[in-house]
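QUALITY CONTROL LOG
STEP: pairwise intake check
CHECKER ROLE: data steward
CRITERIA: each record must contain a sequence immediately followed by its structure tokens, with no blank fields

ENTRY 1 OF 2
RESULT FIELD BELOW
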Amino acid sequence: MKIAIASDDRINICPHFGRATGFEIAEIEDDKIITREFRPNDFTGHARDDHDASHEDKHAIIVNALKDCKAVIANGMGLRIQNDLRAAGIEAFLTDETVVEAAIDKYIKGSLDNNPERGCSH
């Protein structure tokens, strides 16, 4: 299983999912990380500075880019993208945790907090 963590520097979790420089992708098997990669964010509307496409089009691009992930982790994200991710079978975690490594460890242990109210409306 893979999880994606929104990050600007591969160390800290980005405050806003769609504005992240990229996503740290961790592949987990038997409660261990077996691979890690960083996917640059060149697919969100925020990253592409694309204000012409509808929100649905922007979300379809990011959902498709992360479709191999079971979950995404960020410190904040809009309600619409949360719903679009869920509809695609991807769990959205909005956490108070700020460090990528700690979030992965807590996710593996089943102790990562999830605060949907941390979402933003825009």
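ENTRY 2 OF 2
RESULT FIELD BELOW
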Amino acid sequence: MNEVEEYLARVPEPARGTLAAVRAMIRAAAPVAATEGLSYGMPAFRYKGALVGYAAFKKHCSLFPMSATLLDTIAEEVKDYRTSKGTLQFPPDQPPAAALVEKIVKLRVAQNEAKKSKVE
């Protein structure tokens, strides 16, 4: 069992199933070269830098776009969720829409690729 699976095994239901669904959505939207591990104690994907993370808390789950400004750029699409700087919160028994997760991942990929190309 890897560290992400160990993290998920410690999360009680219904949050565990919700995070498993979010994980699958991220994996489907992320490039094949993206890697998964723990970052700041939570599951996260990396692709040319930090991509997105996700975690369970006592009363909610969160998706972390690893960008302080990304959620502002899609404010209309996340208006039904509780947000704060760098996090999208959702109920432990209800994952966000797959299309929204996919959009966040694709925007993060584009941000990381743009940042990486400026460095090279």
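INTAKE CHECK: passed for both entries
DESCRIPTIVE NOTE, ENTRY 2: The radius of gyration is 14 Å.
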